[in-house]
Amino acid sequence: MAVAVVGLSAGCGGSSDSSSPGQQFLDRYVQNGGAVVRSDQGGDVVSEGQAYAMVLADVSSRWSTVRSVWQWTSTHLQRADGLLSWHAKADGTVLDPESAGDADVLAAWALLDYRGPSPDALTAAGKRLASAVLAHETVTVGSRAVLAAGPWAVTASPPVVNPSYWMPPVFRSLAAATGDQRWKTMADTAVQQLTALTSDGRQLPPDWAQVKGSRLVASGSPGGSGEPGYGPDAARAPVWLAADCTQAARQLGARFWPLLRSEPDATARDLTGSVRDSNPAPLSEVAAAATARAAGADGSASRAMTDAARLARDHPTYYGDAWVALGTAMQDGRPPAC
Question: Domain for residue 124, yes or no?
Answer without folding.
Answer: yes
